[in-house]
Amino acid sequence: MKLYFGPLACSMATRIALHELNLEADYVEVCPSTKSTLPAGDDYLKVNPMGLVPALVTDEGQVITENLAVLEYLAELSGRMPEARSARAELRQWLAFLSTELHKAVFTPFFDRSADDHARAYALKKAPQRLSVLEARLTGREVLVGAEFSVADAFLVTILNWAQATPVDLQPYPGLNAYAERHRRRPSVAAAITHELPLYIAEKKRERARVSA
Ligand SMILES: N[C@@H](CCC(=O)N[C@@H](CS)C(=O)NCC(=O)O)C(=O)O
Question: Could you list the residue range(s) of the whole structural domain that residue 95 is in?
Fold first, then answer.
């Protein structure tokens, strides 16, 4: 398999999931500004015309995009999709919530250069309700769905990591904050952050150089 990723972006959820599930993959970094791969300089738009990460190329050569689909594919590939239909629906429900209500609605406006102050104000207005839903869900629970760390946790932990770089404040949500702190120390998560943080810093440096050129 091959994972196209951006440093500390939502694609880190797939890196964590691959690690958790003991699945091998090649990792190809994508520059968010030029949409080319690093260091080869290949055109990423030929892989995903949306220019968004993640994209996972399976061993059969299929390109899968969209976090929800990629994460569910990996869970299924490794036999970790729940057996019961109701439990599968529950996992999908949380993946969809994370993808749409949390990632896109609350955090994307702080990273998307085309978002303006109105978009960011809208996101901050939406945040408390969504974070409260998570706070209620995680109170007394170690993980988001089921009994073990799952692809949904890989996704949530990746998203919550962005709070540090945005005005989204996790402090009023002690259960959620503790969840984020606890899982950041998990080996798969710690390894992903340790690997991607220097790449993120390098990406920001390149971006500053490009802007001032
Ligand atoms: N709907 C997509 C969204 C993916 C997405 O927003 N990826 C961001 C990184 S977290 C990205 O590639 N941003 C680069 C850009 O907007 O140009 C999914 O769920 O996979």
Answer: 85-187
